[in-house]
Amino acid sequence: MILLLTLVTFVILLVLSLPIVFALGASAVVGLLASGLPLQQLGSTLVTASQNWVLLAIPSFVFAGSLMERAGMSTSLVELARAMVGWLRGGLGMSVIVVSYFFSDICGSKMAEVSALGSALMPSLKKAGYRPEDGASLIAAGTAMGMLVPPAIFMIVISEVTNQSAVALFLAGFIPAGIIGACLCLVVLAQAHILGWPRDTRASLSRLLLALKNAAVPLVIPFVILGGFYMGAFTATEAGAIVALYAFIAAKFYYRNVSWSEVFELSYQAGVLTGVVIYLLAVATIFQYLLGISGAPEFFGHLLAPLEGERWLFLTGVAVMTLLFGMVLEGLPAAVVLIPVVFPIATKIGVHPVHFDIVQTAAVGIGLFTPPLGVGLLMALRFADISVGQHVRAYVPYLLALLAGLMLIICVPEFSLFLPRSAGLIR
User: Fold this and answer.
1) Which tens digit of pLDDT belongs to each residue from 295-304?
2) Rounded distance, CA 292 to CA 312, Å?
3) Could you tell me which of 13, 45, 37 has the C-alpha nearest to residue 281?
């Protein structure tokens, strides 16, 4: 009864357009009152849940990503991707997938990534003869895949929620993202022959070398992140500080196109977003406690019990639930509400915690770009200036490719575990 009252309050507040973070907090307070629990627990829980060093990485990565996007580094990455695969039929479409992989290392925020890629690539796609719905599909699918490429804020949050190493998750995401990216590129290649998409450019070694030279500054970051984590040179929090400093130096002294007022504005925005994320984590802790005393873990245990005999079936069932949560509630609320409830069940049946987190990260990324309610998808459609109804049919092949990649990650745990295991971070 308490859980039902809490959920009804949450849904009503969402219908009234209250921001999710406040709806979650208000419904948690209602649940505490209905349970007869002291409200003093609210303050202590808010403080305790926000005290984790790994959360300090969030403002650093958000600031670095915003600053590098403002400096125009996405443009050089787009040119590099076009030089790498543009000579193939449908090469411009493939370059969207490639640049999504590169840019995700830098950006950290999915909405910022959609904005950057939409503004940089949509005009070129339209000019080359791609339909608006195809352009929106490419950007949406590529950004969904990029959820697995660090430094995604979601990975930092889910590492806190499941008590796993953020560095291990960062390393674990590189190969699964490449697997999903390969699935998407195969779909683009097939679509290019069916729809007659042109080659973007001729193969040219000189153009590739020039693009590599121009993209050298942003390309340093993936190597720093991957190499530093693999060798154990720094933690996720230290990596955030290093990347933020590098972004600042590159923007101010190499590109020289970002003013001091813009730097302070981006710092302020990073602080605001960090406050929202930490507050969400804090109030969700109360929500999780209410779920626990209301018997939600037992309910989900019974619901998922038929799938526990096969790990891949269990992971598939949980991934579908996470995908739906990610579509309706966006990414972070899905992590802090659903995942803590099912995570203990997963570890009990022998699913590796890092593999579980990577599967859920991929599912949330796909959910953000799943019609008709995916927030990321709706933003991508704004750049294409089309409706969800106009877009759905064109998006089906890409959605199937995303789901096929997800199933490969589920069925082959070593895709997720190889890098962190070889780095000695997990067993």
Assistant:
1) 666 677 777 7
2) 25
3) 45
